[in-house]
Write a structure and sequence with these properties.
This protein is α+β, with helices and mostly antiparallel strands. It has one domain. Helices cover 33% and strands 12% of the residues. A two-stranded parallel sheet has the order 1-2. α3 links the parallel β1 and β2. It is globular, with a radius of gyration of 14 Å.
Length: 85
C-alpha cells in the first residue's frame, strides 16, 4: 500500500494522480472514453468508506466496462483516506 500511497503524497507524483482522477469525470474534456473497448476480464475493487471517490462512481465505472465486476470492500477507503476507527 505504501507504494501506491506515494503517488498521492509525493509532490512530484501528485499531478499525475489528479490527472487520473479528472479523466474519470465525464465533465473533463480529456476524459479517456474507451472503457467500452476493454476486452479482458476486469475486477474493480472499491473501498466502501472511500472519501475521495464514492462507491457510486465505482458502480458507474463498472457499468462502463463490459463484463466487469465490482467488489466493494467493507470498512475500507483508498490510500488511507477511508473511515478512521
Amino acid at each position: 500500500m505504501a507504494l501506491y500511497r506515494r503517488t498521492m503524497v509525493q509532490r512530484t507524483r501528485q499531478p499525475a494522480f489528479w490527472r487520473q482522477i479528472a479523466q474519470f469525470d465525464e465533465n473533463t474534456p480529456t476524459k479517456w472514453n474507451h472503457y467500452e473497448q476493454i476486452r479482458c476480464p476486469v475486477m474493480i475493487l472499491w473501498g466502501e468508506e472511500d472519501r475521495l471517490i464514492s462507491v457510486e462512481d465505482g458502480r458507474r465505472l463498472t457499468n462502463m466496462i463490459p463484463g466487469s465486476i465490482l467488489k466493494v470492500i467493507p470498512n475500507a477507503g483508498s490510500f488511507g483516506a477511508g473511515r478512521r476507527a
